[in-house]
Amino acid sequence: MIEYLPRSKQHTELYLTQFGIEDCISGHEFGPAVRTHYLLHYVFEGKGTFEVNGVQHSIGSGQGFLICPHVVTYYVADEAEPWSYGWIGFNGTLAESLLEQAGMTLVSPIVYYEHKDRIHQYLQWMIQSNEYPAARETRLTGLLYMIFSLLMENAPKTLMAQTRSNADIYVEQVKDFIEMNFSQKITVEDIAHFIGLNRSYLCSLFTKTTKLSIQDYLIRYRMDTASSMLIRTDLSIGNIARSVGYIDPLLFSKIFKKIKGMSPREYRSQSLLNANVIID
Questions:
Q1: CATH number for the domain harbouring residue 102
Q2: What does the mean pLDDT of the chain come to?
Q3: CA–CA separation, 243 vs 177, rounded Å?
Q4: How many separate domains does the chain show?
Q5: pLDDT score for 181
Q6: What's the rounded Cα separation, in Å, for the pair 173 and 10?
Q7: Is there a single domain that holds both residue 140 and residue 20?
Q8: What is the CATH number of the domain that holds 188?
Q9: What is the pLDDT of residues 216-245, one digit of tens each?
Q10: Residue 142 Rama label (left phi>0; alpha psi -120 to 50; beta)
Q11: Which of 254, 190, 178 has its CA nearest to residue 218?
C-alpha cells in the first residue's frame, strides 16, 4: 500500500510526500534511480540489499536505510527471505538537520532501531489519518515528527559531540530556556534543574563560555526585549515590565536605567525623537 501526498503549503519545515507498508516478493527491486525527496525505509521482517555510491549494505529486520534527493540508489529484496518494510517520503527545510540528529546522512545512511512495533504503529496511524480529513495534514506532520523523535532518541549519544562541545550544547539550552520563559518568574536554579546539571557547574560553564553570568544574560535579554517593545508598541511601562517578568514597574525601571543608561520613558522619547530626525 502506498499513498502519495500533495506538497504541503503550511508545513514547509518538514512534510510528507508519501508513505506506505509493503510485503515484498522475492527479488523485488527498484533502481538504479534517483528521487527528488528523502525516502526512509524501515524493515520489519526479512532482509535485502541497499546500494548507494558503489557501496552495498545488507539490511535486515530492525534496520532502515535512507535515500537522499538526487542520489542514485538501488535496493532489492532477498530471494529467500524478502523483506517486509514501511517507508516515509519527506522533505522540508529542517529535513537534513533532523536526519543528522537521528544519525543519518548520505555517508551514513543506515539506522538501527529495535522497537519495530512503534514504527509500525505510527505508519498505521498515518494510514488511518484519512478518517480526519479536516486536520489530516497536521496529523500526518505530527506523526512524521514522532518517528523522527524515536530515531533521534535512539541515535548514538556521541553524535552531536562530533560537531559541538558539551559546553556549547548546554549554553544553547540555557539561552533557549531563557528565550522561551523570560516573561516568567524564573531563577537560575530553575534553569539548572531543567537542563539537569548542578547549578554551580552550569553557572561556571556558562560564564566561561559567554563572559556573562546566567543572571546577567537573563537581565540583558529582558531589557533588550523591553527596549524593542518601547520602540515598537505603545504599551505602558507597567505592561512592558510585566511582559518581561517584572511585577514591580519601579524595579523594572531601575534595572532598565542601569543597563541602558536612561529610564524606559526617556528611552522611548529618545527613540521617537531620533525617528523624527531621520524622517525630516
A1: 2.60.120.280
A2: 88
A3: 16
A4: 2
A5: 92
A6: 27
A7: yes
A8: 1.10.10.60
A9: 999 999 999 999 999 999 999 999 999 999
A10: alpha
A11: 178
Whether the upstream peptide bond of residue 32 has omega within 30° of 0, thus cis, is: yes
Residues in the chain: 280
Q: What is the 3-state secondary structure (H, E, C) of the chain?
A: CEEECCCCCCCCCCEEEEEEEEECCCCCEEEEECCCCEEEEEEEECEEEEEECCEEEEEECCEEEEECCCCCEEEEECCCCECEEEEEEEECCCHHHHHHHCCCCCCCCEEECCCHHHHHHHHHHHHHHHHCHHHHHHHHHHHHHHHHHHHHHHCCCCCHHHCCCHHHHHHHHHHHHHHHHCCCCCCHHHHHHHHCCCHHHHHHHHHHHHCCCHHHHHHHHHHHHHHHHHHHCCCCHHHHHHHCCCCCHHHHHHHHHHHHCCCHHHHHHHHHHHHHHHHC
Check residue 210 and give left, alpha or beta (phi > 0: left; psi -120 to 50: alpha): alpha
Q: Which domain holds residue 137?
A: 2-156
One-letter amino acid for residue 270 of the chain: Q
pLDDT digits (tens, 9 = 90+) for 133-143: 888 888 999 99
Q: 152, 174, 134, 139: which is closest to 94 by C-alpha? A: 152
Are residues 122 and 15 part of one domain? Answer: yes
